Amino acid sequence: MAFDSTVNREVGLRLRRLREQKELTRERLAEYADISVQFLADIETGRKGMTVQTLRKLVNALHCSADDIVFGPAQPADAGAALPPAFQTLTPAQASLAADILALVLKALPPEQR
What DSSP designation does 94 have? Predict the structure, then answer.
């Protein structure tokens, strides 16, 4: 059961990130995917999982692959080679959070220090 909730949270985070990258509101994506806004919110927050049929609707609405939602975007084979070992052990959700934090830190740095 704990595995399911962890997977649901990770998938939900990836789905939310993809939706935000496409600059879509929950309402708009729910409309495009023909699901309720509440169900989309439940998926994005990890409270609920989804069927393959719902996954297909979201993939079509977001114009992405199912892998992007289920596993995350494909990484080059050596993508993590330059990262410290601690970063290589992160779950996809933790890595995503770390990347978001790093992006905020980089935004806060003066241009000459980036």
Answer: H
